[in-house]
From TrEMBL, chain A:
Compartments (UniProt record): Cell inner membrane; Cell membrane
Upper taxonomic lineage: Bacteria, Pseudomonadati, Pseudomonadota, Gammaproteobacteria, Oceanospirillales
Cellular compartments per GO CC: plasma membrane
Gene Ontology MF annotations: ATP binding; ATP hydrolysis activity; transmembrane transporter activity
SMART domains: AAA (SM00382)
Species whose genome carries this gene: Halomonas stenophila
Membrane topology: Peripheral membrane protein
Source organism, top-level taxon: Bacteria
Stated family: Belongs to the ABC transporter superfamily.
Gene encoding the protein: ftsE
Protein's recorded name: Cell division ATP-binding protein FtsE
PROSITE patterns, per the entry: ABC_TRANSPORTER_1 (PS00211), ABC_TRANSPORTER_2 (PS50893)
Automatic annotation (TrEMBL), chain B:
Cellular component GO terms, alphabetical: cell division site; plasma membrane
Domain FtsX extracellular: residue ranges: 84-175
Subcellular location(s) of the protein: Cell inner membrane
Source species: Halomonas stenophila
Taxonomic superkingdom: Bacteria
Protein's recorded name: Cell division protein FtsX
GO biological process terms on file: cell division
Domain ABC3 transporter permease C-terminal: 199-314
Length: 222, 323
């Protein structure tokens, strides 16, 4: 699903944020990306989302070299990827329902079909009863679940998450991770950047460890 | 991509037909048109001020254009009155004058002639100046007989040639050509046209700036939203659309206000203008924006609003990159 081939990312001509990255993620796999802050986890995810382009090497997603995408194709590429952010990136001027419906609106899905899918996604994260609420009325954990519902509402093949449990207590964090495991179970490729080692060690999935922009460990699920 | 949960559903969603894409496009246009109108109405005073700024920028060139349109009508009328006045020598008798008139009428290039005898000339003069008393005290009639000649063609060069020919006729003392002021008027009209065009371009740019600035602020206010929708796969046209509608609404609102101001203005100026025209013996009234002119004004203002928004959003989109 994802292949990094000798990928490096250099900022400002001197600083190597990422270097010599070589790994593959199989379709349907669930992978954790760990390392200290500044190890390059976010940069790596940004490369996959094509918010940045590699300075060296190439990145294949579903068999396509994403560096060769024309900029007009990039939006359509991004629609194949669901992304969950640490700070959820919800729009605070619209209801939970409309936040989750946003990707479908962008893709021009028929409203009736969209409503069905939004409710299915909200049901999955256990927030169907809050669809009319505004994000501000929700707790941090609930907001993150809305973010997840939005990421999965168009059934992406690939789900990326950048520190999805960064601001949550251990119980809520475990709940969120369980949600990701559910999506993994139905065939979605999941890649989660997290520094919460205690939590992800319990979950027994493959772990890619970054240190100063290099891949220092690739531990298969025990 | 196979989905264990609902493979059939997934397959169907990927098969977007041209028809459904077209419907989705229309749906988004309708939604954004309504949404941007609602946003305008949420800040009525601010929106009104922006529209008023646009209206003021539009009123001046549009008003000048209307005035010029009126001047063109006047010009056409004047064209027909391009005449030559042939003054006969004072010693020419009435019978002789009539003979000369017939000779002139027979010349090629002359459409029509009218003889004004010395007595008729005096009567007209007295009436025009109200100097009856003073003139009756004169020993004799100092005015010569004259013949007004309407040329077939009114082009200045042709009329000038005709005048030269008429001067050579025996008994003719002087030929007066009233072309100089007509030409001056035409030059003035041309000057007016160019000034109007220049002002229209300048004020059109002004409208672009007003709309562009307003939209720039709107883009800045919705920066986070733009970043998020870009992250989840919105195309540039999708992001641009609500702002383009805002710009078009601002333009349309400004155009309607400008239309109102123009109508009020021409009502306000109508009385003095027709009084002034009457004092010159002409019937001239300010032309009004007809249905075509009104449609043109609204179309131009809407287009300018849209264009201003397009420039502002495009400039900004290049800068906004998701964090």
């Amino acid at each position: 699903m994802i292949a990094f081939e000798h990928v490096g990312k250099r900022y400002g001509g001197r600083y190597d944020a990422l270097a010599h990255l070589d790994f593959r993620v199989r379709r349907g796999e669930m992978v954790f990306l760990t390392g200290h802050s500044g190890a390059g986890k976010s940069s790596l995810l940004r490369l996959i989302m094509r918010l940045e382009r590699p300075s060296r090497g190439r990145i294949l997603v579903a068999g396509h070299d994403i560096d060769r995408l024309h900029h007009s194709q990039v939006p359509f590429y991004r629609r194949q990827i669901g992304v969950v952010f640490q700070d959820h990136q919800l729009l605070f001027d619209r209801s939970i329902y409309h936040n989750v419906a946003l990707p479908l609106e962008i893709q021009g899905v028929e409203p009736r079909e969209a409503a069905r899918r939004v409710r299915a996604a909200l049901d999955k994260v256990g927030l169907l009863h809050r669809e009319k609420a505004l994000p501000i009325e929700l707790s941090g954990g609930e907001q993150q679940r809305v973010g997840i519902a939005r990421a999965v509402v168009n059934k992406p093949a690939l789900l990326l998450a950048d520190e999805p449990t960064g601001n949550l207590d251990p119980q809520l964090s475990a709940d969120i991770m369980r949600l990701f495991e559910d999506f993994h179970r139905i065939g979605t490729t999941v890649m989660i950047a997290s520094h919460d080692l205690a939590l992800i060690a319990r979950l027994r999935h493959r772990m890619l460890r970054l240190h100063e922009g290099r891949l220092v460990a690739d531990e298969e699920a025990a | 991509m196979s989905r264990e949960s609902a493979p059939a559903r997934g397959a169907r969603s990927h098969r977007a037909t041209t028809g459904s894409r077209w419907r989705a496009w229309l749906r988004h246009h309708r939604a954004m048109g309504q949404d941007s109108a609602r946003r305008l109405l949420r800040h009525p005073l601010g929106s009104l001020l922006t529209m008023l700024a646009i209206a003021i920028a539009l009123v001046l060139p549009a008003g000048l254009w209307l005035a010029l349109d009126g001047a063109r009508l006047l010009d056409a009328e004047l064209d027909e009155s391009a005449t030559l006045t042939v003054y006969l020598a004072p010693r020419v008798e009435a019978a002789e004058a009539a003979r000369i008139e017939q000779a002139l009428a027979a010349r090629p290039g002359v459409a029509e002639t009218r003889l004004i005898t010395a007595a008729e000339g005096m009567a007209e003069f007295q009436q025009a100046l109200g100097l009856e008393d003073a003139l009756t005290r004169l020993p004799g009639n100092p005015l010569p007989a004259s013949i007004v000649v309407h040329p077939v063609e009114t082009a200045p060069a042709v009329v000038r040639d005709l005048a030269e020919g008429l001067k050579a006729v025996a008994g003719v003392e002087e030929v007066r050509l009233d072309l100089a002021w007509l030409e001056r008027l035409r030059h003035l009209a041309e000057l007016g046209r160019r000034v109007t065009l220049g002002l229209a371009v300048l004020f059109g740019l002004g409208v672009l700036l007003v709309v562009g600035n307003t939209i720039r602020l709107a883009v800045e206010n919705r920066r986070q939203e733009i970043e998020v929708v870009t992250l989840i796969g919105a195309t540039h046209p999708f992001v641009r659309r609500p702002f383009l509608y805002s710009g078009a609404w601002f333009g349309l609102g400004g155009g309607l206000l400008a239309w109102g101001l123009l109508t009020l203005g021409s009502d306000w100026l109508a009385a003095p203008v027709s009084a002034l025209a009457a004092s010159y013996g002409a019937s001239f009234s300010l032309p009004r924006l007809g249905p075509a002119g009104s449609a043109m004004l609204l179309a131009c203002s809407t287009l300018l609003g849209w264009l201003g928004a397009w420039i502002a959003v495009s400039r900004h989109l290049a800068q906004i990159r998701p964090r």
